[in-house]
Amino acid sequence: MGRTITSSTVKAFVQFIVLSGVILLLVCSILMLIPPFRKDSVEIKIEKGSSLSVVARELREVRIIPSSKVFGLYMYVSGADRTIKPGTYSFAPLLSPVLVAQKLVRGETMAKKVMIPEGRTASQIARILESQNIVSREAFLKEVNNAEFAQKLGIPAASCEGYLFPDTYFFEEESDPQEVIEQMVANFRAVIKRIDERQITAEELHRNVILASIVEREYRVPEDAPIIASVFFNRIEAQMPLQSCATVVYVLTEHLGQPHPSVVYYNDLRVKDPYNTYIHRGLPPGPISNPGEISLRAVLFPSKTDFLYFRLESASSGKHRFSRTLSEHNEVAIIPKGL
């Protein structure tokens, strides 16, 4: 005869299951609240695309967490398993696994604060990044001038020059140069979208970026930027050369390797180079700097003027004087030394 399962037996079994669940939950809670003993901080790099199981195992191996399985279960149940941010992290001793999980989800990496000022060229940005040990100058410029990579980022040119948006960034040491560039270009795209909701082609945007890169190097005070942009648009429409000294300085420093000049001489204006807008009409072949929001906005929404000339009126105030005719321009012009 078979054994009869009594209600007391079922009750005992249920109690056993419940008790086991409570004990298991208690153990898991302890393992997520109490860290393994460790005297020193530990640094660990989470690679991009690493699975939860790999991350948990690596954390367990260096005694950041006591149990990879419990940690993985916690991340999965809390829905944080797919939100782990890659990067290099530093974990202090006695940091609970729960706080470790929060740190990974928030992306609190050992990133350095890096400021990229407006109007810097790619080579100047490369030096800034190298000085912070973010990426080597050579590796950064190689990818900036990687035509295939630029096309992948939607840039209709052989270089990312002009699209490396100036801003404050947080980069890790020894970063991948393409990832650094991707972040800067993505920032550029976000700013353009905020400035102008109109749909324009990549080629039209590129022409605006080229002109904005020149305006960036010409204006001193923000209110002058859209007026300077209007001058250049007016000169293009009149089929006049832009005659921007900023393009000449770009040739001297970036193409000829000379130090930044304090004075631009007449001989400099005659230097044969496609970027010299004194001897070539229209826009130069590419951007001469990486413009900020003020210059981009100025070119996308220039002032409506009939000015064809401008000059710096006061070095102290940074204001420019604008003129409609050459004679008017010459009447107020002060010729700097060397010209």
Description:
The protein has 339 residues and is mainly alpha-helical. It folds into three domains: 28-106, Endolytic murein transglycosylase (Dna Ligase, domain 1, 2-Layer Sandwich); 112-195, Dna Ligase, domain 1, CATH 3.30.1490; 202-332, no CATH class. It has helices at residues 7-33, 52-61, 68-77, 97-106, 122-131, 137-144, 147-152, 177-195, 202-218, 225-237, 245-255, 266-269, 293-300, 326-332; strands at 42-46, 87-91, 112-115, 168-171, 309-312, 320-323. The strands form three sheets. A two-stranded antiparallel sheet has the order 1-2. It has a two-stranded antiparallel sheet with strand order 3-4. Helix 9 crosses helix 10 (225-237) and helix 10 (225-237) crosses helix 13.
Which helices and strands appear, and what pairs or packs with what?
Blueprint (H helix, E strand, L loop, with lengths): L6 H27 L8 E5 L5 H10 L6 H10 L9 E5 L5 H10 L5 E4 L6 H10 L5 H8 L2 H6 L15 E4 L5 H19 L6 H17 L6 H13 L7 H11 L10 H4 L23 H8 L8 E4 L7 E4 L2 H7 L7
Helix pairs in contact: 2-3, 5-6, 9-10, 9-13, 10-13
Number of H/I helices: 14
Counted up, domains total 3
The fraction of residues in strands falls at 5-15%
CA-to-CA gap between the ends?
117 Å
Largest sheet: 2 strands, antiparallel
> Rough shape?
elongated
Backbone CA Rg: 30 Å
Q: Indicate the structural class.
A: mainly alpha
Number of strands: 6
Helix content: 40-55%
Q: Give the SSE order as H and E letters.
A: HEHHEHEHHHEHHHHHHEEH
The unreliable regions are 21-25, 333-339
The main sheet orders its strands as 1-2
Q: For the residues shown, what is the average pLDDT?
A: 87
